[in-house]
Amino acid sequence: MTTAPRKTSQKAPRSRAREFALQALYQHLVGRQSAESIDAFTRGLSGFHKADSVHYDALLHGCIKEAEELDALIKPLLDRKLEELSPIEHAVMWIGAYEFLHAPDVPWRVVLNECIELAKEFGGTDGHKYVNGVLNGLAPKLRPLEVEADRASGKARP
Question: What residue intervals traverse the membrane (predicted)?
């Protein structure tokens, strides 16, 4: 059974926050703009008022502040140089790694699925498969107890 992408009107506030954070992180990666100028611009975009602004703030400012640490986590799982990643894939992986580390209230499988959906919606043709592989490799390192519990119960593949 496949599901069509959710219409924007049906998206949860946190999903919207991830979308706005992705757009903002893309601007940071491509244009090297400051978090403050990107934030001011993004908050003016249509539909931002429906996003979880606290989660958006955490993602935007946290990913930029911890960029080196997030990259260090991601790099060992890549089959190419970090510089060769598309900015969309790079930003989605930052979001996933950041949420694994700092959003324990969001189950790891939700983080993974949300990031795959972001990559499908905004990234290249098969970018979501690459994001899936990297974040699936990262999850057991950053959320070992949760991943193991899901594997033991059959909710996740071993």
Answer: none
